[in-house]
Amino acid sequence: MKSLSMNGSAGIGLALLSVAAAALGQNATVYRCPGPPALYTDQITAQQAKDRGCRTIEGAPITVVSPPKSRPVAGTPAAPGATRASDAKVEASDQRARDSDARKILETELKREEAKLAEMLNEFNNGEPERQGGERNYQKYLDRVEEMKAAIARKQSDVAALKRELAKLPAPKE
Fold this sequence. Notes:
The protein has helices at 10-24, 46-52, 92-124, 138-168; strands at residues 4-5, 31-33, 39-41, 55-56.
């Protein structure tokens, strides 16, 4: 067997190395030598291992890592008997009521966010907000102005996102 470096998938490599040695019935001792990267090998003698500060890993528990279960690809049929809540049909009137509720919630949120944005812009005063008492140091004032700019940009982004979400919903029927 050849030596392996400890990187990336070293746990899997160690497990495979140990399983392979056990399966082949080899009596070779596998050593783990310290250092970046750690070295797993059976190509050195016991004296060389002792000189390098290596330790044996015989009898160490083997950890086998199984790959994650794959998800079904969109468009493929689901397993028989497996139903999801999203697969169930919704009555048209129920869907309209849900859409109406979602629209009301988004409109309320949009109004609140626009009001906060207007307040922030008013306080920002076109990039020249009023200095506060603790801002005798001009740099503190500049830092606060930069924070205000960033907060306004975030708020504008929030408002735009709410408008996009409202545009996705069907128009209200009167």
